[in-house]
Amino acid sequence: MIDSIYILDNEDTPLIIYDSNGSKKSESEYQMLVAKLTESLRLFASDLKDHLCHFEIGNKKYHYTMDNISGVKFIVISDKEMREKELLDIMQEIKNHYINTFIGSSLLTEREIADAKDRVKKKIEDLTEGKRFNSTQFLLDLNQ
User: Fold this and answer.
1) What is the CATH number of the domain that holds 9?
2) Which of 16, 105, 128, 139 is deepest in the core (most CB within 10 A)?
3) Which residues contact 90 (CB under 8 A, 6 or more apart)?
4) Domain ranges, residue 10
5) pTM for the full model?
């Protein structure tokens, strides 16, 4: 299951934050968390181009990829049991959706940017909720 997704600009400022637990952190708490997370990821992924990097700490997997053109970073935190193929598919879809939504973002008004961010968040929710439901449904089907 995916716990959190962070989409950061080229200066590591959070553009979109998704937290499946629904916890409400303050802006400063998210900034501090993201700063620590990106610094750790930089150490692990120093030669990262457009490839996925991941590592495990405790019972969590941390996944990181970046769009080379825009410098936008995508970070996903999941539980250890999540299959790599499933996660790669979700990350690629989120990345593609974000890039397609924000092409020409310098020409968008603030309201259009807010609407685009809402569409990306909705896409993330649809992808993560759908995967959680499908996994649950699969397990239920096995019991029958």
Assistant:
1) 3.30.450.70
2) 128
3) 2, 76, 127, 128, 131
4) 2-143
5) 0.72
